[in-house]
Amino acid sequence: MKKKNMMALAVAAALGLGVLPPAADAVSTRDIEQKRGEIDALRSKRSEVQEKISEAQKNIEALQSQQKQVANDIEKLNMAIEETSGKIRNVSADIDQTEHAIDQLKQEIAEIQERIEKRNDILKERLRSLQESGGAISYLQVLLGAQSFSDFIDRMSAVTTIMEADQQIIREQEADKALKEKKEAELTEKRNKLQEDLQELKQLQAELAGQLEQKNRLMADLKQKEEEEHDHKMALEEEKELIAKQEAAVKEQLAELERQKRAEEEAKQRAHTYTSFDNGDASSGEMPSGGSMPPVSSGAFTRPANGPITSGFGYRFGGTDFHPGVDIGKRAPVVPVVAAADGIVFRSYYSSSYGNVIFISHVINGQTYTTVYAHLEARLVGEGQHVRKGQMIGYMGNTGNSTGPHLHFELHRGGWNEAKTNAVNPLDYIPF
């Protein structure tokens, strides 16, 4: 085997082809077309996500416009409430003045009532005098008792004066009664009108306060929706960037396939057979901290880290939560994480949910796979970097939305998407 590899090296050096990537089968035109189709699909998906981002931005602008209108409405309501409160103060002051006037009127009415009572006493006395003297006959007796014509005239004038005085008392009595009733009616009517105005203003104030409360609730709801729309837009932008990285990785894979295809064609023209050779995978051994590299197994994939499966693939918690991968528990102070297969790192960054995360794109027998390594303590590879099966890419950690130290590992048959519709059970592909 060693001699065969040496021969391959010699031929490759002679032809100046360099080291070819390992491949289980020859690259076919179908593989290349399929890869181009994946690029087109990713480009289309990225365009769709961009449209969603634009739509989210329009929604944000619409919500901000609504908030501006609601803010104007709130300002107008506050001004109306302030104006109504001023009117309430004025009407309340008028009511106080009217109550004061009513108190004064009560004093005047008391004085009028006193005059009325005094007149009533006078009239009663006059009536009693008339009854005792025989009423109108006494006036006649007075006149008939005149000793002379001149005395008759004097007596007539005196009787007329007494009668007019009696009539004046009656007139004044009636006038005071009418005045009393008029003032009472006027002030009562004014007070009732002011009370009605006050009630209407208080009702208006309550209605305005209710409208203001509704507008404040609406404003809070609009702000909440805007915040949710911003979060949605950020998620879409992150997805767009992730798709763009996937597209770049697939393009690089396509270029690699095309280079491999050309190399195969050149090899056929020279009637030589070239054999892939191993560049030296990372060996499995003990780490200085006590963690160990997982052994590289045969087949397309190898397990990404040592440790027990603490959470499997599928629905959890009574069918309410879909877990798109498996969790591998941490059982050493430092646990290395390795690439599950040969591939290209198309995303290596910190995510609010995944924490330190690495996305790797693989092409195995013409089929694209994507693996995800989340919640890492540290990342050792960067975007665009080629990795080999079993190569260490990071350390198990507890970053992002994680409840304890572990590796969250996902395997997707195809590209990664936010809905994770391509996720498959890693246990069906990897010997754990």
UniProtKB/TrEMBL annotation:
Top-level taxonomic group: Bacteria
Biased composition (Polar residues): 272-282
Start and end residues of each stretch annotated as Disordered: 260-298
M23ase beta-sheet core domain mapped to chain residues: 322-415
InterPro entries linked: Cell_wall_metabolism_enzyme, Dup_hybrid_motif, M23ase_b-sheet_dom, PcsB_CC
Swiss-Prot/TrEMBL keywords: Coiled coil, Signal
Nucleotide-binding among keywords: no
Residue ranges constituting the Peptidoglycan hydrolase PcsB coiled-coil domain according to the UniProt record: 109-183
A single GO molecular function term of this UniProt record: metalloendopeptidase activity
Bias kind Low complexity: ranges: 283-298
Coiled-coil residue windows: 32-133
CDD domains cross-referenced by the UniProt entry: M23_peptidase
Biased composition, class Basic and acidic residues, residue ranges: 260-269
Leader sequence segment: 1-26
Transport recorded as keyword: no
Membrane-traversing stretches: none
Name listed for the protein in its UniProt record: Peptidase M23
Organism for this UniProt entry: Geobacillus thermocatenulatus
